[in-house]
Specification:
This protein is mainly alpha-helical. The protein has 3 helices and no strands. 74% of the residues lie in helices and 0% in strands. It is elongated. The protein starts with a helix and ends in a 5-residue tail after the last helix.
Amino acid sequence: MAALSWPAVPLTAGLGASVWAWYVSRPHPTDVRTAVRDHERLRAAFGHIAPGRD
């Protein structure tokens, strides 16, 4: 049984790589305004934690 189970590792790695490649190749919607707003909100939150640091 152990001799037959060794192909499971490369097959699992291949399947994972295929799913990852499919996900990465999809066009992802980008919303620059939302990204900038989120960045500014995060920056403001960190500014409250450690004021005076830039």
